Amino acid sequence: MKRIVLVIAFCLLLLSQLNAIHPVVSIYSWCELDPFIYEQGMDYPLSKEEAARRLLEEARQVFSGMIYGYSFTYTPSDKARQVSEEFDLLPHSEILWGDTSLSIEKSKIIENRLVAKANYVLNAAQINWLSAWQSADIEVSEARGESDLFKGSKNKIKALENAIKEAIRYWARNRYFNKPKQIKGRLIIEEEPVFTVNAGKYIAHTRIRLIIDHFLHYKIY
Predict the structure, then answer these.
(1) What is the pTM of this model?
(2) Which of 78, 127, 168, 215 is the most buried (most CB within 10 A)?
């Protein structure tokens, strides 16, 4: 009996070490089985398989932002100077479709939505990349963003991109009195974004960690 207990203890220790070597990041996501907007070429209502495929694609994009992050250039709008807002968000790298480290589990249907937990198993290079973002000196900001529900399900990720932009804007507004001409830097999504729907809008709330590489002020004469 004592030997069995020792074997079980050894197995648990080994499992914990394996999890430490190959940590898993997880998010929860949802897909409407009967979307309000008809998208050409898709059967309605959506099959569970198609909804799962959409969840995987969304998870692929979100995990890419959480693991690799982005470089960005943000030019705030300025009516007095006749400057239009511009925001460019470029992924540092992306998880490829079909990556076997990406999976879905615990899927269930709740109020005509397929809800599931998506997992991604990190490799050693990704762990090293993420560890570099854990410095206490890196800035943190959070905000929410919106996008038009009536432009289809692909616009859900647009809400996340707008939330990232608003988080950068919020960071700058709380540190500088005068509006910047342009901000350039790098960022990573720090934790699982939250998506909701309200009043014809996709809404995303996100928290980011960012490094500012270039902060350009307007010249004062």
Answers:
(1) 0.85
(2) 168
